[in-house]
Design brief:
Layout (H helix, E strand, L loop, with lengths): L1 H17 L3 E2 L5 E2 L1 H4 L3 E7 L4 H15 L5 E7 L5 H10 L6 E2 L17 E5 L5 E6 L4 H14 L1
Parallel strand pairs: 3-4, 4-5
Antiparallel strand pairs: 1-2, 3-6, 6-7
């Protein structure tokens, strides 16, 4: 009986460890629960969106030196397979972690009505700000600084 209980608990533990809310193109899996306590920036983009492509170097700049306790992710507006997404990331030299969008992807925000759209989530996992339109690294840093002071 003890072995059965141990096997069930091990199975539940393994199943829970294999569950994730989203995965990035590099194969890293994330659970929003694990990101609590951090500030998270999520940028929606698309290759057909000229302003989105213009802001990508700014997002790469932000990602290269993010404010303390802050992560950045980008997500393509239109779902693509991993090979399609990889080709797009290479074609447009996207240098930020890109979320692979699928039916199982869980995000704390709804798909925006237009692009580009950037969401800032606070340490509690709740959306603290939404920026519709192009952003710069300096604007993101300034906005995060203001939000962090208000916490």
């Amino acid at each position: 009986m003890l072995l059965l209980v141990a096997a069930v608990l091990a199975g539940v533990f393994t199943y829970q460890r294999l569950q994730y809310d989203f995965e990035t193109l590099d194969g890293t899996s994330y659970r929003w629960e694990e990101l609590k306590g951090q500030w998270v920036v999520v940028n929606y983009f698309a290759p057909w969106c000229a302003p989105c492509l213009r802001e990508m170097p700014e997002l790469a700049n932000f990602h290269a030196a993010p404010p303390e306790n802050t992560s950045l992710f980008a997500i393509n507006y239109d779902p693509k397979s991993k090979p399609e997404l990889k080709a797009m990331v290479e074609k447009f030299s996207i240098e930020v972690p890109v979320i692979v969008s699928s039916e199982s992807t869980k995000l704390p925000m709804k798909k925006p009505p237009f692009l580009p759209a950037t969401f800032i989530l606070g340490p509690d996992g709740q959306i603290k700000d939404t920026v519709m339109g192009e952003v710069t690294a300096a604007h993101l840093r300034q906005r995060l600084s203001t939000l962090k002071k208000a916490e």
